[in-house]
Fold each of these.
Amino acid sequence: MPEATASKDGALRTIIVLKALGGILFLLISLGVFALINKDISDLAEGVADSLGVDPENRYLLQLLGWLTGISSKQIVAIGLVTILYSALLLTMAWGLHLGLVWADWLTIGATGLFIPIELYEVIWSLRLTYGVALAINVFVVWYLIRRRIRSSLL
C-alpha cells in the first residue's frame, strides 16, 4: 500500500475540489472540441455570434472567424488530446490527494508550480485580475503542499 499523508483539513479539501472541478471542466471542453472534428467551425462561430446578437461586421468577430477558418481537423484532434490529457492529470491529482497518497502531493506541487512563472508573466504584462487570482491560488497550493510535506517528514 502506498504511503498515505495526514488527514484532510479544509485547505486540502478545497485543493481537491478545485483540481477535480478543473478536471471535469477540461473533460467537458475536450468532448466539445472532439465534437468539432469535420465541422465548419467558422459557420458554427457565426451562428453563435448571431444568436448572441453580435454585429456580423464586428472587427473582433471577423478576426476570430479568419483564425477559425485556418484550423484543420488534425489541429482540432491535437487540441482535444491535449485537453483530455490535462483533464486526466487534474483528476489524477484530485483522486491521489483525496486518497492521501504522498506522490499526489508531489505531482500537484510540480504540475501546479509549472504554471506560476507563466501566470506571473501574465500578471505583470496584462494586469488582469483573473491572472492575479490564478497566480495567488497556485502559489498557495504549492506553498501549502510543500509545507505539508515538510511537516510530515518531521513527524
Amino acid sequence: MNEKEYDNLLRIKTAGTLELLSQSAHYNRYEATPYEALDELFKTYELHQSDGFVDFGCGKARVSFYVHHRFGASVTGIEMNGQLYQDALENLARYRRKAKHRGGAIRFERCFAEMYEIDPSENTFYFFNPFSIQIFMTVISNILLSVEREARPIDVILYYPTAEYVQYMDNQTPFKLWKEIKIVSLYDKNENERFLIYRLDE
C-alpha cells in the first residue's frame, strides 16, 4: 500500500511536513515515518498487547496509530506543538470510529518530552529525531529513573538515527544495541534509512 492508502485504512491524515514555528532550536520539523519503513521494522520486531509504547514527538501520530492497529498495544503519543497535537486528536476521533474496543488504550499528551513522566507500564520508546541531543539525553535519563523505580526490560527504537544519538546510546548509557534493521529499498541511497533498537534487560 502507498502512503495515502495506509492513511485511508486507518482513517487518519498524516502526510506532509510541517516547519515548527518554535522559539527553540531544540525541536525539529514534523515529518512522518514512512509506512514502508514501519512495515520493514515490524517484519522482525514484535510488540504485544501487554506492551506500553511511547512515541516521542508523535506529530500527527502515524506511528501511534500504526502500532495500535497492528498489535493492540497501549500507545501514548507525546507532542509539544499545539497544531500537531490537535491534528493527532482529530485523527484519534476518526480512528476510534473504526477501531472501537481494540486492544490497549491510545492517548496523546501535549507537553515537552523532557517533562513527560514515564509510566511503569511503558517499555518501548520511539524516536524519529524529534529534538536535540540535549533533550534526548534528558528523556533517556527519565526512562532510566523509571526503571530504577520499577525494574523491567526496555527497548528504545531510533529511526534515521543521528550520529549524536547513536554515540550517546553507545557510550553513555547502559543500553546495548540489540538489532539494526535497514530499509532495504532506501538504504542504498542513504545509510541513515534504518532502525536501531537498543535494549536494556532487567
Amino acid sequence: MTIKEIQEEIVDEFSMFDDWMQRYEYMIELGKSLPLINDQYKVDENIIKGCQSKVWVHAEMKDEKLFFTADSDAIITKGIIAILIRAFSNQHPKDIIEANTDFIDEIGLKEHLSPTRANGLVSMIKQLKMYAIAYQTQLN
C-alpha cells in the first residue's frame, strides 16, 4: 500500500468513532500493536527531542524501504507514534520525504492534543522524515 492509501485507511478508521474519548481509546489500542524498539536502541540519541514524554524511534533499511520501530513511556504518545509508523514504515525513503501529513488534521488529532503533545507530534514527523532523508542520501 502507498502512504496515501494507508493514511486514507487511518482517516476512515477514525471517522467510525463518535467522540474523542473513543478515538483516544483506539489510539491506545494502536499503541499496543506498535512494532516495539529493541532495548539496545532505547538510548538517548534515539529519543525524539521536543516531546513531553520519552519517545524512542529506530529506523533501518531493507530492500530500499525504511522500517521503523518505537516505544514511549506514555500510552497516548505511544498511540501517536504507532499511527505515524503505520503510515511511513515499509516505504521508500523518497516517498516518506515527499508524503504530506494532512491526514493528521483530517482525523483532528492536532486540535485534540495539548500544545506540548502537538509539538511532540510535529517533532515525531520531523524525525521520521529526517531518517528518510539520511537513508535517501545513502541510496543516491
